[in-house]
Amino acid sequence: MPTKKWNFVPHDRSEIQALADRCEVSPVVAQLLLKRGIRQPDEIKSFLQAKLSDLRPPEELPGLPAAVERIYASVEAGDEIVVYGDYDADGMTSTAILYRCLSLLKAKVSYHLPNRMEEGYGLHTSTVESLAERGKKLVITVDCGIASIEPARRAKELGLSLVITDHHRFGDELPVADAIVHPALPGSNYPFTGLCGAGVAFKLAWALCQRHSGAQKVLEPLRDFLLQAVGLAAIGTVADMVPLIDENRILVRNGLKTLHKHPPLGLRKLMELTKISEKRELGGEDIGFTIAPRLNAAGRLGQAQLGVELLVTEDETRADALAAYIQVLNENRTKLERSIQLSASKQLKEIHSPEDDPAFVLASPTWHPGVIGIVAGRLAEKYRRPVVMIALDKLGSKPGTGSGRSPNGINLHAAFQECGSLLISGGGHAAAAGLRIEESNLNAFRSAFMEAVAEQMSDDVAEAEIDFDAEAPLGQLDLSVMSQVELLAPFGMGNPRPLFCAIGVDLAEAPKLMGESGRHMSLQLAQHGHRMRGVAFGQAEEWLPEMSEVSGKIDLAFRPVINEFRGFRKVELQLVDWRVHNAEEAITVG
Questions:
Q1: What is the value of pTM for the model shown?
Q2: Read out DSSP for 416-445?
Q3: Which of 12, 115, 119, 516 lies at 20 to 30 Å from 88 by C-alpha?
Q4: Please, what sign has the CA dihedral across residues 452, 457, 462, 468?
């Protein structure tokens, strides 16, 4: 098991108590707020309350007023409008928000999402030409379009109006469009650029409802829609892993409440199937681990249109059928993942040296291109090296599609650029990127990629670190303390669930496998007379054999959660890391 460096930054107890007294919160909450750099009373109040009224007015979003006028003109003219989205959960929820909004405004509106396998991400020239040929007058992109220079130019040539709404990075040139809505539009100074596609779509829908109502306070049916739209925006925000701070925190905090109380019909059916509708309240993890993966499964397996239909349908029978089908798609995706991971792990050991090679490039014609990114991420995390997985064409007549993940600071996008002559295309982000490659170039690319990664590596680049919020003996973690911790929810990117450590813990029973997949494990933990359950998701293969051989105490890195089962609530620990206890080994302080 790769070792990780455990760090604990000591807190000033007097500062913690002073903040707790000043802001009327518990010392636990005060310590967690300080760790997050939140220390001013007004900032703390805003963070803890996260009221919808604290959202910035939609007209402040760069480019939004022009987009509203252009779209509303098409609504009034009876033009045929297409909402053009993306095949992930953010793209689906963005599409659903704007489609439902325009439908309520009596627009002639349809939606289109590209097929992940056949078309790929973004606006495509061929699709633009097809939409124009079918008599569409206005295309509104959501969660895509800001980098679609050529398709936008073609739309203009064809007389097809284009409004782009996006949140992704853009290049030196912006596309030609009637309006562009983007939180970081050049020349603007919007104070929060972290909105996801669904957050941008929600702001646009809000402004369109105001325009239709002729006032800032929208009409009753539109108000009900906007509350549901906050829930959809919450799904997109969590799923797209944007930071859960500022406006994103407000959307998710309030969206979780509306999803629980009044979800769209199809979503309610999916929540009933997965049992999360039975919970007392929803958390960010319910989106991240239950709702979003199912929507993403539809996109990964080429059925993104059905994901949107689930979110917008008002037909009970259709909603039941869609929820059941998407549940099956998710089960299929899970089986595919498991099969591909077994195959990739075997191949990795056959063609690479796991200890010595700086990166791994794996390929097979039997792998599904929609699933390889998830497996690449798991392998990258396990080995602390960049992993590229390529789904080759079964007949060898088309290029292979690859997905890469980097867990340790290596910039994948830069490494792909170094190997550009061997790729048809390649790029993305530092930690996640994609490529297309001819199979004949595979071996040359493997060598070139490993060399490019090696050049980026420094002595400390592969070392993983864990930064704790605090040390917490098991006896302190009761429901009253956890109710204080939950005040900081929703947790996710930019606001992670607090990470604690417990030193010198006994295994009360031998660890056990958990779940059907055999990837998870559960264990009973004891410390100073207190006993608790711990779970480790996705770690059974690596941890179970090692932990089963431990005869003494262990140290734990964990995130505490409240587990609710059949109305009974108890605290349990989600393990992040562990090590054999050494009384002389201290956590690194500083």
A1: 0.90
A2: HHHTGGG-SEEEE-SSEEEEEE-GGGHHHH
A3: 516
A4: negative
